[in-house]
Amino acid sequence: MSCNVPQTKTSVLHRMDPRFRLVGLFVLIFAYSFVSDFRLLGAMLIFTLMLFFISGLPARFIVQKLKLPSLIILVLVLILPFVSGQNTLLDLGFISLKQEGLHASGVIAARFLCIITTVMIVLHTAPLLTHVQAMRAMGLPWIMADMALLTGRYLEVLGCDLGRMQTAMRLRGLNASRPGLYMLRTRAWLCGSLLVRGLERADWVYRAMRLRGYGQNRTATLQFRATALDMAVLSAALLAAGTVMGLEIWFGL
């Protein structure tokens, strides 16, 4: 199964035991989601930048991966300062900028950016298969591990099918970016075709797996071995998370 992972594999995160890498990821995500004080955003961003430099991943790769998730929260961040809160910072007549809404949107945007960036960095320092095997070694049920692998695989397959269909549409003179009812209908047919083909293919794969004895005598065969480097990096992640949570509790008193 292919995985879009950069070829740079000499950083500390690339050499880590994937179990420790995932534990550090979950700890940092929990700590970042705990932050609500505006004064901690700087420390949170600094920790994320440090993780980025340690990973050795190219900046363009991370920015490209962040484009689509950022669109999800962009609307909320832009609207919230004008609809939430009581204290007005700027009155424009028909609309006003609120202090509480601006504070909330800044906290939400910073937490979202740090969490998504951390997830992207950790998950792209090794293939999906390695992370699923690490979760299986930590006790994840085998059926959930298999479903994660199949989901990742068929998201890639659907993406390839979508690219081929869009290329075929352009070769037939259809401009997918042109607005109009006709193109909306065409896009609906395209999405429907992808879903139907994906369902049929999933059914074929499931039948083939059952014929090959899927679900019988499942055992975890891959073993991981932790090193002093893994303990050091995990300790640093725990220290960063503990610092963020401790300062949040201190500022809240």
Task: Describe this protein's structure.
With 253 residues, the chain is an all-alpha fold. The protein contains nine helices and two strands. The longest helix is centred in the last third of the chain and has 31 residues, at 181-211. The N and C termini lie far apart (50 Å).
Q: How would the blueprint of this fold be written?
A:
Blueprint lengths: L11 H4 L2 H17 L6 H15 L3 H25 L4 E4 L4 E3 H25 L4 H10 L4 H30 L9 H31 L16 H25 L1
Antiparallel strand pairs: 1-2
Helix pairs in contact: 2-5, 2-9, 3-5, 4-5, 6-7, 7-8
**Structural class label:** mainly alpha
The largest sheet is:
2 strands, antiparallel
Shape verdict: flat
Radius of gyration using CA atoms only: 23 Å
Contiguous helical run count: 9
Q: Please, what is the average pLDDT?
A: 79
Number of strands: 2
Low-confidence stretches: 1-5
Task: Strand order, main sheet: write it out.
Answer: 1-2
User: Helical residue percent?
Assistant: over 70%
